[in-house]
Amino acid sequence: MGYSGKLEEKLKAQELRRRGLSYGEILEQIKVSKDTLSRWCRDIPLTASQKKRLLENKSLGQRKGSLIAADNKRRRRFARIREIHIEARRELGPIKKRDKLIAGILLYAGEGEKRDGAVGFANSDPKLIKFMMNWFKEFCNVPPSKFRGAIWLHEGRSESDAKKFWSELTGIPLSQFHKTYIAKNKTGSKKIRKNIHEFGVFAIRFSDKDKHRRIMGWISAVLGGRISHVH
After folding, report:
1. What is the topology classification, in CATH, of domain 97-223?
2. Contact by Cβ (8 Å): 10, 41
3. 165-175: b or e for each residue (b if 16 or more CB lie within 10 Å)?
4. At a CB cut-off of 8 Å and minimum separation 6, what does 150 contact?
5. Residue range 62-77: average pLDDT?
6. Torsion angles phi and psi, residue 46, rounded to 5
7. What pLDDT is stored for residue 141 in this prediction?
8. How many Å apart are CA 74 and CA 42, to the nearest integer?
9. Boundaries of CATH 3.30.1330 in the chain?
10. How many CB atoms lie within 10 A of CB 13?
11. Has residue 190 got a pLDDT over 80?
12. pTM beyond 0.70
């Protein structure tokens, strides 16, 4: 079986699990190993009514212990993740202004526009967009009127909802948004899109050659590269 077929089985199994079906019921429809199914669905929580149904089903009575064990294992995993996050925050200590400056420089080095004079940063993660919006204001002294917003959105998603979301997050007025790019769904394609973001990918943009060159200079300084000559 090819990769696309395996992915289709995984997505179907996860959907059946969200409906509250037991592993046994899912395995009747999807022919994979129990270990594989467990790995696919282990992070999908069941509602109280779904758990009650599974526990009350006589044919699944023997699974009562394993269902409780799976819940306990999931809780322990989430608790451990939270514990590690707390430890990581403690290791970093207070985040100072210079730390934020360098963090933004590195984020821009990875995701920012490199074309001379065109400052731009695009991402689907609201936390990164908000961080960089504040970073541009604080370290590049960009006035609100110079910012422009642009959205890359999959067909079928609400453009008005996406515009409202990103405008409220960044403070960029809708009047300063470029035309939204809509990515059309490919009919007849076997490729399954795994990451369809509800509000799409957002780009913060503004035009200022000196500020862009300063950012590129920061990147060269942090990464130890040579300063490029602009022609």
Report:
1. 60s Ribosomal Protein L30; Chain: A; (3.30.1330)
2. no
3. bbbebbebeee
4. 122, 177, 178, 180, 181, 202, 203, 205
5. 77
6. -100, 150
7. 94
8. 7
9. 97-223
10. 22
11. no
12. no
